[in-house]
Design a protein that fits this description.
The chain contains eleven helices and eleven strands. It folds into three domains: 9-83, no CATH class; 116-154 and 270-379, no CATH class; 157-257, no CATH class. With 379 residues, the chain is of the alpha+beta class. The strands form two sheets. The protein has a six-stranded mixed β-barrel. The chain has a four-stranded antiparallel β-sheet with strand order 2-10-1-11.
């Protein structure tokens, strides 16, 4: 009982019915030719065929794509059952949604924290210096540290991009010129900031994220060298970062150099308190960096140009000043007091991520109101 190509299910069923009737009639005729009465011949023909329903099922199993029809039947049966018990259906659906959503969220968090490595070179060599520091202190730490290369960065600073059609509001990060070398990443197109490009007269470059380059500049391959206006300042595009680069957060769309001008004392020491990330230099250990950082901070405090504030700054944060392997999304600089145990680290991709091979729980810090180094606004 074969089927022709292109037949619908109804046509196949009609053909099956006709073939079964033809088989019954043929068997009955043969019985009658053998001298069996018509009624008895019909009965013997049906017995010879067997259970007609089972025969149909056996034939249907030879048809192609029968599982599709069976699936449709199961779905219709299930929907009818759910329709009769709407309350149960709602509770079951919500329970499944909460269970699946919760498990997916937990797995994403655990996967980012424990399993995925940062897309940086030698991520186990990255550390974060606890606290927030003005530009002057950052420059002092960079010059005096012998165990680490230190870079500062701001988080979630909104800027206006104009001169490229309709003005748009973007999320920017102001960074030390050495940030990209500290993280161990390069540009996908062009280059990243070079040492000295955060100094006055040389701080007019900008690095774009891959997403911004594609969305706002239509993935222009000749983007390097193009001039753009950011908050009214003309800057030259020097590079585009790889798609996977998301620092300090996934919302960051461009990076501009910090304006490191010692002659502007107020800006250099009183504004832009920033978090720091650092890379251990070759041949140095975390223990050596920890023993170095607190004396460095103490010496940097003495450089503060306002004597009346030095006494407050002399109260350095408790702990060793470094966090390794901790994972969190960098928070905006705060002016409120901080008096709780916290885990600090470097943000990576679209979740929480780490800067080393172990988690480090940072000791409690003193209240930020008593320590201006740990408060302020990022710029």
């Amino acid at each position: 009982m074969g089927t022709r190509r292109g037949q619908t299910r109804k046509e196949q069923e009609a053909d099956l019915e006709r073939e079964l009737r033809a088989d019954l009639e043929l068997e009955a005729e043969e019985q009658q030719e053998a001298g069996v009465p018509a009624e008895e011949a019909q009965y013997r023909a049906m017995r010879s065929l067997g259970n007609a329903a089972l025969v149909k099922e056996d034939v249907r199993k030879t048809w192609r794509w029968t599982w599709i029809e069976q699936f449709r039947q199961d779905v219709r049966y299930g929907l009818r059952g759910f329709g009769r018990s709407k309350g149960f259906t709602t509770i079951a659906a919500l329970s499944l949604a909460l269970g699946i959503g919760g498990n997916a969220a937990i797995f994403s968090l655990v996967n980012a924290i424990l399993f995925q490595r940062l897309p940086f070179a030698d991520p186990d060599r990255l550390v974060e210096v606890t606290g927030y520091y003005p530009k002057g202190a950052i420059a002092a730490l960079q010059q005096q540290s012998r165990t680490m290369d230190i870079a500062g960065y701001s988080t979630d600073t909104e800027v206006n991009l104009t001169g490229q059609g309709e003005a748009v509001r973007l999320v920017s990060s102001s960074v030390s010129a050495n940030l990209f070398s500290v993280l161990g990443v390069g540009a996908e197109i062009g280059r990243v900031l070079s040492p000295g490009e955060d100094q006055p007269g040389r701080d007019r470059g900008v690095v774009l994220s891959d997403a911004l380059w594609r969305r706002k500049f239509a993935a222009d391959p000749a983007i390097v060298g193009r001039m753009v206006s950011i908050d009214g300042i003309d800057r030259q595009v020097i590079g585009v970062m790889p798609p996977a680069f998301e620092f300090p957060s996934a919302s960051t769309q461009l990076w501009v150099p910090l304006h490191m001008d010692p002659s502007a004392a107020f800006d250099y020491w009183n504004t832009g308190f920033l978090p720091l990330v650092a890379r251990l230099r070759d041949g140095t250990t975390l223990a050596q960096a920890r023993s170095e950082i607190r004396p460095l901070i103490g010496r940097a405090i003495t450089l503060f140009p306002y004597p009346m504030v030095v006494s407050a700054l002399s109260r350095a944060p408790e702990g060793d000043g470094l966090a390794v392997g901790a994972r969190r999304k960098p928070r905006k600089n705060r002016s409120s007091a901080v008096d709780r145990s916290r885990i600090v680290g470097v943000h990576k991709r679209r979740g929480w991520s780490g800067v080393g091979l172990q988690l480090a729980l940072v000791r409690k810090t003193r209240a930020a109101r008593q320590h201006p180094w740990t408060s302020g606004n990022s710029r």
